[in-house]
């Protein structure tokens, strides 16, 4: 069944941006309150870091197994189904009487929060080709806003309420969004696609092998989101050690990433007008400068501020540029290409979380920064070997 995508209104783009932000926020509530969770369950910081890793590994699993369903089923209904399951997982996390149940709930939160990554290729499918970068930039600015505000939201609530309350309030926010999306989310013009699910999954390795630019985006996203999580997974520990500050400060520092939010539409325009190769290079440069500042001047609060702004800017340059590349490759495989890219993206994030919390436990801040250098070195080698396209091939 062929279908012609409808024009996206500004209100619809705004709704899609808000939806991705609210949904993806579920992944990041744990980061500023890791210390509170560790105290509550009487577990080590390394153990709570492992739970945070499980959340992102669950998300990576959902990206691999659920997001490809967007190339088969009606995305309007698929997005809502995943949100219902996500609300259930958040409520289990709120109720969890033991660390084991909380770990299971955290994993399920990751798996069910992939609705945001069903929305991204859906927005790209509905967007006119010549404006795809700009529209993706707007939608992804909503995603980054959700990441940033979730850290601040969680950190501030954790300082005045029980950490469990973060999850029940998040469930309420997702329920409100679900009602709004049911009423206003655009219907999928494609309808049901007659494809075999197992064959769709089996096509993922072929898509990666046959598309050089998908390989480059997957590797770049893996490394640079890993670098982002290296900071955010250990910042609360560093602030407590260096300044004796609590989770609320870690949450407030997350607001510095507003720079990346403001730049996301501009980045999309740069991709449309100039070159994704240029913006991918800038993403690495900003991230490398950030960790150079963290390592040399991280003991100064001003150094942390400058570094966080640069790091979030680098993360957003990487995300918008890579999504524009990935969504320009093949309209009929847009969900599967996004699945491959975002699986790699969050696999890198989960490994960044794991190795950074391990490095913090054994080697402190120097160890954390050393892990970032490894990720950045791999990203640079990948950029030289798998160069991003100079111009995008527009799919109308």
TrEMBL record:
Membrane topology classification: Multi-pass membrane protein
Domain Major facilitator superfamily (MFS) profile: 12-391
Superkingdom, taxonomy of origin: Bacteria
Protein name: MFS transporter
Organism: Loigolactobacillus binensis
Entry's localization field: Cell membrane
Presence of the UniProt keyword S-adenosyl-L-methionine in the record: no
Keyword Electron transport listed: no
Keywords carried by this UniProt record: Membrane, Transmembrane, Transmembrane helix, Transport
TM segment ranges: 12-30, 42-66, 78-95, 101-123, 135-154, 166-185, 218-239, 245-266, 278-295, 301-320, 340-359, 365-386
